[in-house]
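Box S2. Input/output pair 1.
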Amino acid sequence: MKKFCVILLLSFTIIAVKAQVKINNTLKHELDSMYVLDQKNRELVSIKLDSNKVDSLTKLYHINKGNLRNYLMKLQTDADSSNTKRVEEIIRQYGYPGKSVVGEPTNEAVFYIIQHSTKIDKYLPLVEQAANKKELPFRLYAMMKDRSLMHNKKEQIWDSQAWGMNVINKQTGKNELTFFIWPIMNAKNVNKRRKEAGFDQTVEENAKRLGLTYKVYTMEQVDKGLID
């Protein structure tokens, strides 16, 4: 009898665990499709396209080469707007759809859509809560927190964000768009914080990945345009 009770208890435990990890496949497929839209044209406008790709896209969209980048940006803006609207509906229904609801890596889809929207500050606490519950990687919350700080003109914490601004080129005397790593709080310990948050690159390696040379700036230097 005792053995039977143990087996019965184990059976109920297995059933309970399976119930807890049941994936909402309908939502998962929808979010996977939304993530594709989030990335599709964003990737195209962020890289230098080869001539064959340019020719292919201009034929596909029936536009001139000179208008291609602006057209792709408009497509992405429209997709972002549509995605954000739907994500807000999903959040109202499910909360943050983390890995226990849609599995991995689909649990990252809502993060990226919010990250590319104007709703970061509204949903940052929700993303933090999901990260603390391990429903999505903590480093993603760190990226969103850094972006929020940057947009609010404050120092970032984990060095995940770069910024571009027009500054005077000392050699040419002309205004030029210059990209740099946004100022970092307590920069000397940033690599330790990055490792603890789950980033697999140092601040120097991250800058190189972005095509930049790592240099520490202060908020005062940014405010005065003292970027070189």
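Box S3. Input/output pair 2.
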Amino acid sequence: MKSKIFGLSAFLVLSFALFSCGGGSQVIANSNASPITIVVLESVPNIATPDWVNNTDDFWEANGNYLYRGMAEGMTNMEASRRSAQASAVTQIAEQVKATVRVEFSRALESEAYDEATGIYLKDVFFSVVDNLTLSGVAVKGSYSQRISETNRDTGTTKVYYRSYVLAQLSQQDFKKLVATAFDKTSTQMTANKSAKELAKEVEDRFFAAQGQ
């Protein structure tokens, strides 16, 4: 029994080492239960897999920045794979940031006393403005590509392709600029509705107070 436990432990340690290593071929999927064997032939750059690549959250906040990991795979050209991953990261971080703005706005709105019709109107206008904003300030902070060999034991076929990851970042300063723009545009659309405009200002102050500004 002890020898079986030791053998399993050694296998797990070896598997982890293969997955974490930056250079050389790496077997990252080779299960007896699956006919598929995946091997990393090379990594660009040739370094250990960055922590952000393995972040399962995709979208997260760290050190005053919003971060998003984009991924693309299946292409035979590394640059095309990287561009696809970058496009995915930039698009998705924009959607995630807008979703965050909508959630935080709703929290700030619920903290105010307001007429229901006015609140619904304000929320509809604000959400519409946010959905149509163009996100600026997104920067690419890292990229990592792997050339993958995928073999199917059942069919005897092997395909080689690239899997690329790109890390996109938006600073909290640019995040707040986006929110300020959203409130400005919302207020502009409410010139004929004084109560909604006043509520928008109250919600804006509460929104930024919650952000520590």
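Caption for Box S3: Helices lie at 2-20, 78-110, 116-131, 172-188, 194-210. The radius of gyration is 24 Å.
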